[in-house]
Amino acid sequence: DGGITQSPKYLFRKEGQNVTLSCEQNLNHDAMYWYRQDPGQGLRLIYYSQIVNDFQKGDIAEGYSVSREKKESFPLTVTSAQKNPTAFYLCASSIGGQGAYTGELFFGEGSRLTVL
Amino acid sequence: RKEVEQDPGPFNVPEGATVAFNCTYSNSASQSFFWYRQDCRKEPKLLMSVYSSGNEDGRFTAQLNRASQYISLLIRDSKLSDSATYLCVVNWAGTASKLTFGTGTRLQVTL
């Protein structure tokens, strides 16, 4: 079955540590995204990539980094510079890259990060 | 003012009831509109797009009012399985990087 796989589902981190969240898709989608969801807030865009080897900052990129070396993979690193990293992180993909957006985002099941 | 505003609820309705949610948006240049459904502690999934002329998918009807800048979702004959949070999503630039998500309206359908 095609879809998006995120791992780990739950992650605990000590303050000051970097952590990398994995996101893999086999939908052959060009575009991939990372969102953060906090209670009482809408999803907020961290980073997005419309094509391999290219990515752009979203609305809240500070303290995060990404790479897009393969079409299928878009890992997110939460660095120690991120002041409030505890959140639910969602990876998504869409068919359209540059301008061919159809309206649907496909989400992974999410990764819940807790900083102790 | 938030770009996309929704009543957080919860809306508690009995099975079989009709319930409606509204969502207002502030950017008059918004181009496309969607309703997503999110179950508790799960990922959002697209429920339906919202077209200018209104559209229906089974028990669900979505409407767009550009003049007043709001979209609505009507659910008829509510089922227990409709219990979820419904996210209003607005796109003002034709690319997914410009999606704005509302905080969601929680629906609880009871026996």
Please work out how many helical segments of chain A DSSP would assign: 0
How much β-strand is present in the residues of chain B? over 45%
| Major sheet attributes of chain A | 7 strands, mixed
Termini Cα gap of chain A: 36 Å
Q: pLDDT below 50 for ≥5 consecutive residues: which ranges of chain B?
A: none
Count of individual beta strands of chain A:
11
Which value, in Å, is the CA radius of gyration of chain B? 13 Å
Span between N and C termini of chain B? 37 Å
- Regarding quaternary structure, what we see is heterodimer
**What can be said about the biggest beta sheet of chain B?**
6 strands, mixed
Structure description:
The complex is a heterodimer of chains A (116) and B (111). With 116 residues, chain A is mainly β. Chain A has no helices and eleven strands. In chain A, 0% of the residues lie in helices and 47% in strands. In chain A, strands 2, 4, 5, 6, 9, 10 and 11 form a seven-stranded mixed β-sheet that branches. In chain A, strands 1-3-8-7 form a four-stranded antiparallel β-sheet, with no helix packed on it. In chain A, β4 and β5 form a beta hairpin. The termini of chain A are far apart. The relative contact order of chain A is 0.32. The model of chain A has no long low-confidence stretch (mean pLDDT 91). Chain B starts with a strand and ends with a strand. The relative contact order of chain B is 0.34. In chain B, a hairpin with a 5-residue loop joins β4 and β5. In chain B, strands 2, 4, 5, 9, 10 and 11 form a six-stranded mixed β-sheet that branches. A five-stranded antiparallel β-sheet of chain B has the order 1-3-8-7-6, with no helix packed on it.
